[in-house]
Amino acid sequence: MILSWLKAARLPSQSYILTPLVLGLSIAQAQGGNLKFEILICLAIYSLCLQLYIIFANDYADQETDALNETFTLFSGGSRVLVTGERNPKEIRNAALLSMSLCIALSLYFSLASQSFLPFVLTILSLLLLFFYSYAPVKLSYRGGGEFLQMLGVGLVLPYYSFFLCQGNSYPWELLFVLLPLNLSCGIATSLPDQPSDKISNKKTIAVSFGPLAAKLILMFCEVVSLVSIYILFPAVSQTLLLGHILLFAIIALQLLCSNGIPGKLRLSVFVFLSILFNLSVQVWLILFFFQVT
C-alpha cells in the first residue's frame, strides 16, 4: 500500500515545484530579505502539498487518456496507479482534495504572517491553473494552451510567491524573459512521449497540434531564447560558472542528436530528460548566482 502511494506521488516531480520556489528565495536573500525558519519549513511543506495536488488531480482527470497510453515514460503519462488498479479513483480524488486543503490552510498562515492577502490569492491562482488545465469547462490541455498554464505556474507564480514571503525588495520582472520560455519548453517536452494517446483523446497539445518535430523545434527555440535572455539581461550571471555555460550548450547539442526520437523509444526519453535537465540547470545556475550575492 505504501509503495503504491509513493508511486502515485511521483516524488521526483517535486523538483518542478521546489526549484522555482528556491529561486524566489535566492532572489529575496540577495536583496536582504528576511528568510524566517518557520516560513521556510512551511514553504517546503507547501511545495510538497502543491505537487501532490497537481499529480493526484491530474491523474484523476486523465485516467481515460492514461489508459490508452502505451508510450508513457518516467517523465510523462501519469503515475499509472489508476491504470494498473493499484489505487482506485475515489482514493486519488480524496488525496487531491486533501492536498488542496492543506495548500489553502498554509496560504492562510502565510497571509497572516505577511499581513497580506497575496499569498492566499496566489495559492488559489495556482490551484486554478491545474483546474483550468485538466477539468471542464475550460480543460485547456484538451482545447489547446495547457503548456502555457504550466509556464505561468512555475515560471511566474511560484518564484514570486517565495520571493514575496521572504520580503524581497524588488522582484526582477525581466527574469520572466528567462523563466517563461524556459518552462514552456519543459511543458512541451513532457508531452512529447504522450503524443499518440493524446492525439487519440483529441488533446490539443503543441505536439499534437503541430506535430512532434515542430514541437521539438519550438521547444529548443524557447531554450535558446531563455539562454540568450540571461546573456542580455543578466550579464553578471553569464559571467559566472564556466561549467554552467558548457553544460547548457552540451545539452542543446545532445538534444539535436536525439531530435529524431519517437514515442516509445529510448532516444525520445533521452531528449525529454535533457530538456528537463536544461530547465533545472538554468534555474540552479540562477539560484547559485543570487545566493552568492551579498
TrEMBL record:
InterPro entries: UbiA_prenyltransferase, UbiA_sf, UBIAD1. Gene3D superfamilies: UbiA prenyltransferase. GO terms for molecular function: prenyltransferase activity. GO terms for cellular component: membrane. It holds the Pfam family UbiA. It is a multi-pass membrane protein. The chain crosses the membrane at residues 40-56, 95-112, 118-136, 148-165, 171-192, 213-234, 240-258, 270-291. It is found in: Membrane. Pathway: Quinol/quinone metabolism; menaquinone biosynthesis. GO terms for biological process: menaquinone biosynthetic process; vitamin K biosynthetic process. The keyword Zinc does not apply. The keyword Cell membrane applies. Keywords: Cell membrane, Membrane, Menaquinone biosynthesis, Transferase, Transmembrane, Transmembrane helix. This is UbiA prenyltransferase. The lineage of its organism: Bacteria, Pseudomonadati, Spirochaetota, Spirochaetia, Leptospirales.
